Amino acid sequence: MYRGLIEAYRDRLPVTDKTPVITLHEGNTPLVPAPVLSARTGADVYLKVEGANPTGSFKDRGMTMAVSKAVEEGAKAIICASTGNTSASAAAYAARAGVTCAVLVPQGKIALGKLAQALVHGAKLLQVNGNFDDCLALASKLSQDFPVSLVNSVNIFRLHGQKTASFEIVEALGDAPDIHCLPVGNAGNISAYWMGYQEDHAAGNSTRLPKMYGFQASGAAPIVTGKVVEEPSTIATAIRIGNPASWTKALDARDTSGGLIASVTDREILSAYRLLAREVGVFVELGSAASVAGLLQSAAEGKIPAGSRVVCTVTGHGLKDPEWAISTAPSPTTIQNDVLIAARELGLA
Ligand code: F0G
C-alpha cells in the first residue's frame, strides 16, 4: 500500500526513525499524456497533475516534510505566508498533527476555495493589508521572535518533500524528460524539482538532466526583469509574487540546466487554462496554467525541439478558484422539466 512520500522515499529524505510521519498520503500523482499539446508543439508532452494531492496542490509534498520535522523538533505551532495553497496545505497537515496553524494572506487576493480550506481546517487566519511579500516578511519575523515554526519554502524540508515529484517522473518515464516546464512564484518548486533531478541523476536513476523552463506572470516577473516588483499584479493570484524567496536557487536551476525563465501574459495564461479544461480534460487553477502557457509560447519561439519529451507540472486544482471558473464560463440555461424543451436547448432536436 502507498503510504505517502516520506515512506516511499525515506532513504532519500532527511528523516530518521525518530521522525513522526505526518502524512495524508500525498504524492504518487498521475503523469498524464497530453496528445493535444503534443500535436500543437511537435513534442511528446505530459502533465504532472499535482491537483490530485490531498489538498489539491503540490504544496502537500513539502508540507508532509515540514510539519513532520516541526513536530519532531517539538513545535506546537506552525506559521506561513501564502497566496492560498500553502495555507490550505499547512492547515490540513497541522490539523492532522494536532498543532496550531497560523496563516497570513494578502487581503482580497486569494482564491475562495483556498480561503475555505484554511478556515475549515481550523487555521488562525489573518488577512494582511499588503501583498504576499509583505506577508512572508511578517511571518518570518514572527517565527524569529515567537515560538512558532515557519513552513514556507524557505524551510529546506519543504523543498526536499517537493523534489520527490521529479523522482516519480523519472520512474514513470524510465528517464528524465528533455524539458520540464513549471510556473514560478516564490521559486521554491522549480528549485525543488531541480534538486530532485540532480539527485536522481547522481544516483544513476536517469541518464540525462532536463532543461528547466520556468514561467512567471508578466505582471509579477521579477526573475525575468531582474528587479523586485513592488506591486505585482496578475489574474493568477497563486504566483502574484514580486520578490521570490528562492530567487538565487531558481537562477541556478535555470543556468545549470541550460533552461530559461520567461514571462507569460494573463491572456496566454487564460488561453492555456481554457485549452487544458476543454481539450485536455484537466481542470487546473490559473497559476498552474502558466506552465502550459509557457510551453506553447516556447514552442512558437522554436525553443522546444521536435520530438523532445516535455513534462509540464500543473500545480493546483481548478476547483480552488470556483469564482474565476464560473465568471469565465457561459451561464447555464434554466428550463422547465420537459423532454422536448431539454432536447431543443441541447441542440438534439
Ligand atoms: N502554482 C500554484 C498553484 C501555487 O500555489 C504556487 C505558489 C506556485 C505555482 C508557484 O510555486 O512559489 O514554489 O514558485 N504558491 C505559494 C502559496 C506561494 O502561498 O500557496 P513557487
TrEMBL record:
Keywords: Amino-acid biosynthesis, Lyase, Pyridoxal phosphate, Threonine biosynthesis. Signal peptide: none annotated. It comes from the Bacteria. Its cofactor is pyridoxal 5'-phosphate. PANTHER family: CYSTATHIONINE BETA-SYNTHASE. Catalyzes the gamma-elimination of phosphate from L-phosphohomoserine and the beta-addition of water to produce L-threonine. This is Threonine synthase. It comes from Paractinoplanes bogorensis.
